[in-house]
Amino acid sequence: MSQRSRQTPAASSPQRPSPQPQSSTPCNTQQSTR
Fold it and tell me: What is the pTM of this model?
């Protein structure tokens, strides 16, 4: 279970780079992250 919890943040990792393009689409990225 400990390993599975660590994999969860990995899915969040791809979403983290999303905020970078937020400058290009703040509304599209903010809605996708929320």
Answer: 0.12
What is the torsional sign of CA 28, 30, 15, 34? negative
Question: Rounded to an integer, what distance in angstroms lies between the CA atom of residue 30 and that of residue 20?
Answer: 11
**Per-residue burial over 1-30, b = 16 or more CB atoms within 10 Å of its CB, e = otherwise:** eeeeeeeeeeeeeeeeeeeeeeeeeeeebe
Per-residue pLDDT tens over the stretch 1-34: 555 555 555 555 555 555 555 445 455 555 555 4
Residues 29/19, Cβ–Cβ less than 8 Å: yes
Radius of gyration from C-alpha coordinates of the chain: 12
